[in-house]
Specification:
Number of helices of chain B: 0
Order of helices and strands of chain B: EEEEEEEEEEE
Distance between the termini of chain A: 41 Å
Order of helices and strands of chain A: EEEEEEEEEEEE
Number of strands of chain B: 11
Number of helices of chain A: 0
Largest interface: A-B, 20 and 23 residues
Shape of chain B: globular
Structural class of chain A: mainly beta
Number of strands of chain A: 12
Shape of chain A: globular
Structural class of chain B: mainly beta
Radius of gyration of chain A: 14 Å
Distance between the termini of chain B: 31 Å
Largest sheet of chain A: 6 strands, mixed
Oligomer: heterodimer
Helix content of chain A: under 10%
Radius of gyration of chain B: 13 Å
Largest sheet of chain B: 7 strands, mixed
Strand content of chain A: over 45%
Strand content of chain B: over 45%
C-alpha cells in the first residue's frame, strides 16, 4: 500500500527563519514520483517540484530546497529565510508508477510566517 | 494564470441532483487530472485522462464519471449528489507521459444542500 505522511499539521515561524517541512512516504514500487504543492490562502494549487525515485539529487530553487533520501523514505522541503508570502498549506504527494499511477497525498502542513 | 480554465467557479445544488464540471487544459497539454478537496477527506486524486483515454483512477465514486473529449477538454459528471460531495474540485493538466508537472485550474466549489 502507498502512503504519505506529513506529521506536522501546523508550523509557525518568524519571518527570515528557515523552516523544514517533513514528508515520509511508503511504497513498494521501485518506480515512483514525489511531489510538493503549495496552496496559498487564495486557494489555488501550485505545483512546486517532482522527483523520480531514481534521482536522489537534492534540488535548490531560490529559497526552496528539497532533500530526497530513499534510505529514510523522506522527501523534505526547506524554505530558507522565510517570507510572509510563503504562508500556505503545503502538500506532499506520491505516484506509484508500477501500481497504477495513482496520486497519494499527505494531509498537508499549514505554514504561517509571522512578520 | 495557469492557462487551465474551469467552469463554473461556484455551483450550488440539491441532494440527488446531477452536475457537470468542465475543464479546459493548457494549450498543448494532453493529460487532465481531477482532484477533490474537502475538509473531511483532504486532497484526493480522482482520475487522469491522457489524450482521450483513461490513464489512472483514484478514489472516484461510482456515482462520478469523467471523460476527455477529442478537443482535450474534460468533464467530470457527479450524480445522485450527497451532502458529503460538497468540496472544491480541481482540474490540472500536464504535457503527458511521464511529465507530471501539473498546472492547476482555479477549482469549482460545489455546495450540495
Amino acid at each position: 500500500a502507498q502512503k504519505v505522511t506529513q506529521a506536522q499539521t501546523e508550523i509557525s515561524v518568524v519571518e527570515k527563519e528557515d523552516v523544514t517541512l517533513d514528508c515520509v512516504y511508503e511504497t513498494r514500487d521501485t518506480t515512483y514520483y514525489l511531489f510538493w504543492y503549495k496552496q496559498p490562502p487564495s486557494g489555488e494549487l501550485v505545483f512546486l517540484i517532482r522527483r523520480n525515485s531514481f534521482d536522489e539529487q537534492n534540488e535548490i530553487s531560490g529559497r526552496y530546497s528539497w532533500n530526497f533520501q530513499k534510505s529514510t523514505s523522506s522527501f523534505n522541503f526547506t524554505i530558507t529565510a522565510s517570507q510572509v508570502v510563503d504562508s500556505a498549506v503545503y502538500f506532499c504527494a506520491l505516484i506509484a508508477v508500477d501500481t497504477g499511477n495513482q496520486f497519494y497525498f499527505g494531509t498537508g502542513t499549514s505554514l504561517t510566517v509571522i512578520p | 494564470d495557469s492557462g487551465v480554465t474551469q467552469t463554473p467557479k461556484h455551483l450550488i445544488t440539491a441532494t440527488g441532483q446531477r452536475v457537470t464540471l468542465r475543464c479546459s487544459p493548457r494549450s498543448g497539454d494532453l493529460s487532465v487530472y481531477w482532484y477533490q478537496q474537502s475538509l473531511d477527506q483532504g486532497l484526493q486524486f480522482l482520475i487522469q485522462y491522457y489524450n482521450g483515454e483513461e490513464r489512472a483512477k483514484g478514489n472516484i465514486l461510482e456515482r462520478f464519471s469523467a471523460q476527455q473529449f477529442p478537443d482535450l477538454h474534460s468533464e467530470l459528471n457527479l450524480s445522485s449528489l450527497e451532502l458529503g460531495d460538497s468540496a472544491l474540485y480541481f482540474c490540472a493538466s500536464s504535457a503527458g507521459g511521464r511529465d507530471f508537472e501539473q498546472f492547476f485550474g482555479p477549482g469549482t466549489r460545489l455546495t450540495v444542500l
